[in-house]
Amino acid sequence: MDRIRTPASQRKRQKGMHSPKFSCSYEIKFNNFVIFIMQRKMGMTRRTFLMELARSKGFRVESELSDSVTHIVAENNSYLEVLDWLRGQAVGDSSRFELLDISWLTACMEAGRPVDSEMKYRLMEQADRYPTLNTPESEVPLFTASKVSQYSCQRKTTLNNCNKKFTDAFEIMAENYEFKENEVFCLEFLRAASVLKCLPFPVTRMKDIQGLPCMGDQVRDVIEEIIEDGESSRAKDVLNDERYKSFKQFTSVFGVGVKTSEKWFRMGLRTLEEVKADKTLKLSKMQRAGFLYYEDLVSFVSKAEADAVSLIVKNTVCTFLPDALVTITGGFRRGKKIGHDIDFLITNPGPREDDELLHKVVDLWKKQQFGRDLRRYATHERKMMLDNHALYDKRKRIFLKAGSEEEIFAHLGLDYLEPWERNA
To answer: Are strands 343-347 and 325-329 parallel, antiparallel or unpaired?
Structure first.
């Protein structure tokens, strides 16, 4: 989807300082505060929403930067990034502004009045650095763990995972609990892995995870052991466990799940060779196909191969539904270069329907962990219901118009995350 770009003439007008412009539709209660909200990294829709919200609370908010502005609010911008932006607006002296994080505006909205611009809300030069293994402890800035959401749809997660040694161990533990059909502990480790993947620095001490969500006792024990010994004995034990190794092999076959793996293991089978050699087993149609094309199905897929397959899928789908749109999703859309499979989103804007295509769309949503958290957030935090068809506000009892991902995020009050920021 193309982004909405500011016309060149409008960008030129924004280069200089302007006369004050602010909404007069609300009563201004706090005249000493003149707020300007930066659109950079925020997006026009969210900025407009926040501006109107602040005005409805009695704050004076200007649409353009002017000499009367006292407070500049930024989101996901560092101190140096804001200064660089101000230089681009021909602002010589930035010291007259209070440069504040979006959390200050959020606190004001919750209080219904201006709150003190305490140190924790201010953008400062030292906050631009993150600790590394070579950073002296005295120079390491405090990391605001309370700002890390429990929901992956509220966190930016790129492919740059600084804590792979922890997340690899968590995913092994999660898979083992999945094989034991213990969903609670499985999700505990998966969510912990998701949180650590979003951190912009490597965890080197237990203090680094203090205040982070999804850090249960089991998770903390694994982290502490890896910090002290360099590896997790629990994850190592799992990798050497006979049951885990057998289930790992069995479930790698298309059409074989945990139930079937449990049945084969109870029969004394331990390897795929033993399964194929057992003539008494009655395999389903999918399982037979899984064994027949096993090598192809477990092979890695490159981005070039995914693009080539995409053309084949588009041509085939358009044979039946000429107006259908086919989009590569999953790992390749998030920026990965290789994967185990290729996921597609197939939509038809026209009046015709196809039951098989609908099933494929449903399967896609089921496979996205990120999508599951988005629906969980909508239900628990916004009292809304998000499914494959619509976004419904249960309190207002209305369906919300949403023609794009950006609009869905905006309705939920979330920052829009690009596909490559969803590697949760």
So the answer is: antiparallel
Dig out the tokens for 313 from the structure. Answer: 């899928």
- Sequence ranges of the domains in the chain: 8-127, 152-238, 249-298, 301-367, 369-421
Q: Are 347 and 324 in contact (CB under 8 A)?
A: yes
Distances (CA, A) of 222 to 159, 170, 213, 321: 23, 8, 16, 51
Task: Judge contact between 321 and 358, C-beta under 8 A.
Answer: no
> What is the torsional sign of CA 184, 189, 193, 195?
positive
For 390-415, what is each residue's pLDDT tens digit?
888 989 989 998 888 889 999 999 99
- The answer to whether the CB of 100 falls within 8 A of the CB of 74 is yes
In one letter, which amino acid is 359? H
- CATH of 8-127, picked from 3.40.50.1110, 3.40.50.10190, 3.30.450.20, 2.40.50.140, is 3.40.50.10190
Alpha-carbon distance of 410 to 417, in angstroms, equals 11
> 303-309: long-range contacts (C-beta < 8 A, 24 or more apart)?
303/332, 303/336, 303/337, 303/338, 305/342, 306/332, 306/339, 306/342, 309/342
Write down the pLDDT at residue 177: 96
Nearest to residue 258, comparing CAs of 180, 336, 198?
A: 180
Cβ neighbour number for residue 390 with a 10 Å cutoff: 12
pLDDT digits (tens, 9 = 90+) for 253-275: 999 999 999 999 999 999 999 99
186, 212 in Cβ contact below 8 A? no
- The span from the CA of 334 to the CA of 337, in Å, is 9
